[in-house]
Amino acid sequence: MTQIDAGHSATRAEPKRHVHLQQVRYADLDPQHHVNNVRMLTYLEDARISFLHPGAPADREQDFGALVVARQEADYVAPLLPRSEPVRVELWITEIRNTGFSLAYEILDDTTVYLRARTVMVGFDVATQRPRRLSEAERKFLAAHS
Questions:
Q1: Where do the domains of the chain lie?
Q2: Total Cβ atoms within 10 A of residue 50
Q3: pLDDT (tens digit, 9 = 90+) per residue, 101-133?
Q4: What backbone phi and psi angles, to 5 degrees, belong to 138?
């Protein structure tokens, strides 16, 4: 899987989208022979990780502190069937708050949107098991994609 940052044209006021290419695997299919709904959420998670933690695994701890998913909602627009080419999982930031942020996603190809989703992420202090404020560096990174 590869990641691409999709810029926006000067005529649109859309946020900068992060693009994650996701290969559909046989193990992702359900008995109806389309990608299982839970696997679609895993595709979102894969895209989110590639966005929040770019680069080599050794660099990942520097990018973002601990985060937890506070809310996730998904609209399954069309069935995603087995295919040889990857689908795009595009994500962008829709809101930044003191302790968290919201992302929007689309799983799509050039002709079809398969899923639209939203996730609310909250900064998390592992030691206290409580929400934490986002750092200035985290907020700056997120603002570049909103």
A1: 3-143
A2: 21
A3: 999 999 999 999 999 999 999 999 999 999 999
A4: -65, -45
